[in-house]
Write a structure and sequence with these properties.
The chain has 141 residues and is mostly helical. It has five helices and two strands, in the order αβαααβα. The two termini are 16 Å apart.
């Protein structure tokens, strides 16, 4: 495959990943028995503020993919690593710190990660890896 078709493939992959991440943001990020969570305890779902940060990062990744397709250059797509790292950081902190804290606090609620949390993490990893590949392709030229 030529460099041009690989560049287009990478850009489409980042754009599709950004759209999938947008879908993941509306999916639940935690499974829990709601009748076992007291009313004064906040929901174990990913907070709205962090969802907004992820949405901005996904919009930036989508814009970088669009610019890559318009300019026929890998340089903009290499910056998709940054939004990817933001999303991975948020997802990992949520899965490693936030959810276990709720599990310790409310064991009867049977709290665990849901599809949305895993999809957000996967999209972040996809954006990071694709951005790195585009960066190495730029450096190779």
């Amino acid at each position: 495959m030529s460099g041009r078709s690989l560049r287009g493939t990478r850009a489409v992959l980042v754009a599709a990943g950004a759209v999938a991440g947008g879908v993941a943001l509306v999916l639940p990020t935690a499974h829990f028995l709601s009748d076992r969570v007291p009313g004064d305890v906040p929901s174990p779902e990913l907070s709205v503020a962090l969802r907004l940060v992820c949405a901005v990062a996904l919009a930036a990744a989508f814009a970088l993919a669009w610019i890559t397709l318009r300019r026929h250059s890998d340089e903009p797509l290499a910056f998709a690593t940054l939004p990817g790292l933001v999303i991975v950081g948020i997802a990992v902190r949520y899965l490693v710190r936030t959810l276990p804290a709720y599990v310790d606090q409310l064991p009867a609620a049977r709290i665990g990660p849901a599809l949305g949390a895993w999809l957000i993490l996967g999209v972040g990893v996809l954006l990071t890896v694709t951005g790195l590949v585009a960066g190495f392709a730029t450096k190779r030229r």
